[in-house]
Amino acid sequence: MHDEAFEHFFDEGLIEAVLLPLKHGKEASVHLCRANPRTTGEELVALKLYHPLNKRDFRDEGLYRDGEFIKERRIRAALEQKTKFGREVQGGLWVSREWETLRKLYGLGAPVPRPIECTDDAILMTYIGDRGMPAPRLHEYAWDDREELEALWEHILDSIEHMLYRDVVHGDLSAYNVLVWDGEVVVIDFPQAVDPKKNRHAQAFLERDVRRIGQWFEHQGLYLPWERIAGDLWTAWTFADLVPEELRGLSI
Question: Fewer Cβ atoms within 10 A, N terminus or C terminus of the chain?
Answer without folding.
Answer: C
